[in-house]
Amino acid sequence: MPLLLDRSPEVVDATRREFLAVLGAAGLLTACSSGPSGAPAPTTRTVTHPLGTTEVPVAPTRVVALDRRAALPHLLALGVTPVGALTYESIIGTAFPPVVADRAREVAVLPTGGGADEPNLEAVAALRPDLVIGWTDGISEQYPALSRIAPTVPVDVDFTDAAVSLRAIAAAVGREAEAEVVVRAFAERRTARLAEIGGIGDVSVVLGVGDGQFRVYGPNGSSVARWLVESGGRIVPEAATTTGEAYEDMYVTVSPESLGQVTGDTLVVMFNTGAAGEAARAELESSPLWGTLPAVRAGRVVRINSQESVGSYGFQGYDAVLDSLVDQWRAFGAPRGTSS
């Protein structure tokens, strides 16, 4: 007499559950997953970037950050810990920016291949990445070689708005919603903190770059300058009336003899980390006209980290420079002629 199988709905359903459990234990269930239409779920998606398009994993797990202009901080802010990131050593003297060093302890430090932005290809390949992200200008020459190692996405950088590169990186790793949370949270915090300093008045923003050259920034040349303008301040001098070598509408490079054009009631001095940056700041503050500047005479000089202020340390750096700016400003109050 043949064996009769029980095909009742209850038994069939139990058998199916047991079958799926076996597949799951064998690691085969994912391969059998499907989208809403029954077709296999896609494992990659297309990302458009400055050098073309790249097919990237839907959920990358071994991301490498190949620039010193915020890829590492942005990934961390998005909840992605890369397996490796390009060293900042030659620029700031430490492997990674201090504002993210604690969260980057498990991130491998990738050496450069020559210049400060040039990655070592062998070191990148050794990490077996499934996605590589880097600054467009820094990796453009090596883009073909990097693409043979792993899907590679170059991102552009706006030195007055870190949200540009954050959003581009978020698109590459599928974290767009997380990026908007970061941007919105900082905007709210910035508004609240800058309100603490009251009237802003006329402000000058400068950076010593060495060799007797000083940059005088306009409102479009610096994140900090933009923040102050959006909070009611005015950046002086205007680029159109400043004597020196203009770079687009961002800043004008002036000589020590022309430093007297810096007439803001408050002076924001940006400086770079490291020996060269400190030397350039010292050159600025020891120049013949330094002591004649209105803000210097009034004791209204704020000193902030340039790399943080241009977004090179991501929104973590923005938070740090915002606190530094406001805390120093509050120590000497609002300038004369403004309401607090």
TrEMBL record:
Signal peptide: none annotated. Keywords: Signal, Transport. InterPro entries: ABC_transptr_periplasmic_BD (IPR002491), Bact_iron-sidero_bind (IPR051313), TAT_signal (IPR006311). Residues 63-333 form the Fe/B12 periplasmic-binding domain. Belongs to the bacterial solute-binding protein 8 family. PANTHER family: FERRIC ENTEROBACTIN-BINDING PERIPLASMIC PROTEIN FEPB (PTHR30532:SF24), IRON III DICITRATE-BINDING PERIPLASMIC PROTEIN (PTHR30532). This is ABC transporter substrate-binding protein. It comes from Pseudonocardia lutea.
